[in-house]
Structures are given as C-alpha cells and as structure tokens.
Write a structure and sequence with these properties.
Layout lengths: L18 E5 L4 H12 L3 E6 L14 H13 L4 E5 L5 H15 L4 E4 L12 H21 L8 E5 L2 H7 L7 H25 L5 E7 L10 H7 L8 H9 L12 H12 L10 E4 L12
Parallel strand pairs: 1-2, 1-4, 2-3, 4-5, 5-6, 6-7
Keywords: NAD, Oxidoreductase
Pfam families: adh_short_C2 (PF13561)
InterPro entries: NAD(P)-bd_dom_sf, SDR_fam, SDR_subfam_1
C-alpha cells in the first residue's frame, strides 16, 4: 500500500476518489471537515439547515454561509453538491442524498455532524429540538446514506466530551436544551457502537469523535458564555477564556480549532483506519482525565 501520510494539514490524497456527505456543512466543524476532505481528494455533498431554530439561543448558518463553503470546496479542485436540508426530516435527507449520489455515482464517507446546543432557561421545547437535531438528525443522516455504502465505507459521528463528562456524573450543559443535548450525544455514542457491530460483517466502519470546546459559533455565543460564567450577568469573550481553559487538563487550552477535529475525520475516513471501528475518539486536551468520564 502506498504511504500517503504527511504532516498535519498537508494534503496527501488520503481520500482521493471518494465521495463524502457532511451535514452542518455551512460553517464551524462541518465546513472545516468538508474542505479538509476535499483537500485530501474527496468530492463533497454539503447539507445544512441554513435557518435558525427558535429555541436555540444563537444564530445558525445562513444560505450565504453554505454558498461560501461550496466555493471553498471547489477551490480545492473537487466537486461539490449542496442542499438546504433539515436533518430532522428523513424524507428530505433521503432525497438529497439520493440525488447527489446519482450525480457523483457513489458514496463512501458519511459525516453526521449537524448539531445545536440550546442552553439556559429556555422553553421545554428546547429539549425536543436538541434531541431531534443531535440524535434523530444524526441517525437520519446515517440511515439516508446506508443504502449507498459498500465495503470500505466509513461513517463518522460528532459526539461531545460534555456528554462523556455528564455520563461520569460531572454535570453538563444547563437547561432543558442542555439536557436534550447531553442525552442525544450519550445515545448517539451507544448507537454508533451498535451500528459498528451490525456493519462490521459488511466491512463498513462506524466511529464517533468526542471534541472538547471547539472554536465555532456554538461556543462563541452568549448562551455558552453564560454557561461558563453564570456569576456574570452579561459575560463576553474576554470573561470566559479562563473558564473555558479550566475544562482541559493541558494548560492554556480554552478550546481547540475545527481543523484539529478535521484531521481526525480525515483519518477515520481514510484507508489508514481501515480496521478501526466502534471507536470513541476523544480530542479533548485531557478534559476527561481523572473525571470519571466514559471512555
């Protein structure tokens, strides 16, 4: 086998010729994953809601964000197909994936990344919205991709260190929406483990990545600032850096970058991880070390 390894961030064609589906692809982690996979040779299907959800306390991506993500993928020389799709709508997911696969000819990688984290004293509906986007949306994405996957395919879900810590009795995000988020990510972890067992005889892999704080609009938002600094009425970015950093065991790490997670996505999507399945991969700068978090 040809050695295609290189330094982090250096394109080496690790997923050349593959087609990847990425949800939540208009910005944040999803956009980073889409562009990084394209840099490594994949054509990309980018799906995103591109409108706000009322119970979520920070704005979500826009149609313009999705257009810009497509342009960044195309700048790598790879092809891109995008659609504004609500991951909670299984029929819409199925239709969008089928149409893109008909254009590209195959599907090899599914990155179920779309998610929200409505925090604070919001309405009870926030619990349902978080659960539906973060768990139902992830399973809809994966199930929409399953009919198109063959041996060698890779499924990658976005979990959360927050859910692992909550499972270890270390608390978690606040409010009804926070509870829905944690439950969804906990159940998604179990789902990926069981899915990996089901798919292993078909040589299709399923893994889940659990990041700590990631420098995205979800983290850099007023509800998240208040989660980490409840002692302040109106905390801003400068007020939360130390609080963010307190979660990680490694010093002076308030957050990681989307690119740090994208490197793991590329690895799990590539043949370099061809025997890796059912894995909980934490990218957390030591956030769960000694805290009783589930591994």
């Amino acid at each position: 086998m040809t050695d295609t390894r290189g330094t982090a961030g250096t394109p080496t064609g690790r997923v050349a010729g593959k087609v990847a589906l990425v949800t939540g692809a208009a910005r944040g982690q999803g956009k980073s994953h889409a562009v990084r996979l394209a840099e490594e040779g994949a054509d990309i299907i980018l799906l995103d809601l591109c409108r706000d959800i009322e119970t979520n306390g920070y704005p979500l991506a826009t149609p313009r964000d999705l257009e810009e993500a497509v342009l960044e993928v195309e700048k790598t020389g790879r092809r891109a197909i995008s659609a504004e799709v609500d991951v909670r709508d299984r029929a819409a997911i199925d239709a969008a994936v089928a149409a893109a696969v008909a254009e590209f000819g195959h599907l090899d990688i599914v990155v179920a990344n779309a998610g929200i984290c409505p925090l604070g004293d919001g309405p009870l509906e926030a619990f349902a919205d978080a659960f539906d986007v973060d768990l139902v949306g992830a399973t809809n994405t994966i199930h929409g991709g399953l009919p198109h996957l063959n041996a060698g395919a890779s499924i990658i879900a976005t979990g959360s260190v927050a859910a692992l810590l909550a499972a270890g009795s270390q608390g978690g995000p606040s409010g009804a929406g926070g509870a829905g988020y944690v439950l969804a990510k906990e159940m998604l972890t179990t789902y990926v483990h069981r899915l990996a067992q089901v798919l292993a005889p078909k040589s299709i892999r399923a893994n889940i990545i659990h990041p700590t704080n990631v420098n995205t609009p979800m983290l850099q938002s007023t509800p998240m600032y208040r989660q980490f600094r409840p002692d302040l009425a109106d905390p801003g970015p400068d007020d939360v850096t130390d609080a963010f950093a307190s979660l990680q065991a490694m010093p002076e790490v308030p957050w990681i970058e989307p690119a740090d997670v994208s490197e793991a996505v590329v690895y799990l999507a590539s043949d370099a991880s061809r025997y890796v399945t059912g894995l909980d991969l934490t990218i957390d700068a030591g956030a769960i070390l000694g805290r009783g978090g589930r591994r």
